[in-house]
Amino acid sequence: NTSWEILKQIPLDTGKTLLKQLEDAGAEIPYACMTGMCSVCMCEIETWLEQVDKSFRGEPAFPVDDREVMTCIAGGREGAKDISLKMIF
């Protein structure tokens, strides 16, 4: 079992995908596409699950668990402030 730590906390911008926000903030997160099909950018939502719109830019190509999110297609819901994500891969 791998233990991950939060590397960076950033303010949530409801106009951008989570992946774009993480990149803009200088966080190194792996990804291989922007279509939601590959799962490399998948993270686990640690806090504020209800503030995440998991299909901000489209639906995932395969089922994800309740706490998992594809950062390339997910964003924050209107009024959201902060969330904590944990990298899976």
Can you put this structure into words, describing what you see?
- The protein has one helix at residues 18-24; strands at 42-47, 52-53, 68-70, 75-76, 84-87.
- The protein is mainly beta.
- The strands form two sheets. It has a three-stranded antiparallel beta sheet with strand order 3-1-5, with no helix packed on it. A two-stranded antiparallel ribbon has the order 2-4.
Give a quick set of tags describing it.
single chain; about 90 residues; mainly beta; three-stranded antiparallel beta sheet; two-stranded antiparallel sheet; 1 helix; 5 strands; about 10% helix; globular
Any chance you could write out the topology, listing elements then pairs?
Elements lengths: L17 H7 L17 E6 L4 E2 L14 E3 L4 E2 L7 E4 L2
Antiparallel strand pairs: 1-3, 1-5, 2-4
By secondary-structure content and strand pairing, the structural class works out as mainly beta
Beta-strand percent range? 15-25%
Oligomer: single chain
Envelope shape: globular
Describe the strand arrangement of the main beta sheet, using strand numbers. Answer: 3-1-5
What is the helix tally? 1
Main sheet record: 3 strands, antiparallel
Distance between the termini: 12 Å
In N-to-C order, the SSE pattern is HEEEEE
Q: Uncertain regions: pLDDT < 50 for 5+ in a row?
A: none
Arithmetic mean of pLDDT = 83
**Helix amount:** under 10%
Total number of β-strand segments? 5
What is the CA-based Rg, rounded?
12 Å
